[in-house]
Amino acid sequence: MVASDTTDSALDGVKVMVIDDSKTIRRTAETLLKKAGCEVVTAIDGFEALAKITDQNPDVIFIDIMMPRLDGYQTCALIKKNKTYRNTPVILLTSKDGLFDRARGRIVGSDRYLTKPFTKDELLNAIKEHLAVEQ
Fold it and tell me: Going by CATH, does the domain composed of 12-130 fall within 3.10.20.30?
């Protein structure tokens, strides 16, 4: 049996962007993802994220829905409207789990919806699912 904190080589070098105004959520996700071998880029809101996306070119993007200035829905829509990034998987993070919220996420182009608090497995499986990495 392999220890659970060993690096998951399937995710080595995968660049993940985490956009959340909560320092705790950013740090938690960053720690879990780095332990799995991912390269992590963080942003505190949609504006900072949009400025970093072109430089960083992430493989997967996690976005919190509830953020000041530019919320997760608006940020997702802007990413998906860009030809270069429209195929980049965008996973919405939220504490809201309503049908309306999920539907709105689909409308703006999100690829998945993850409810907070998320587990390490949920986070890693979401990446694997969208990068077609064998589990």
Answer: no
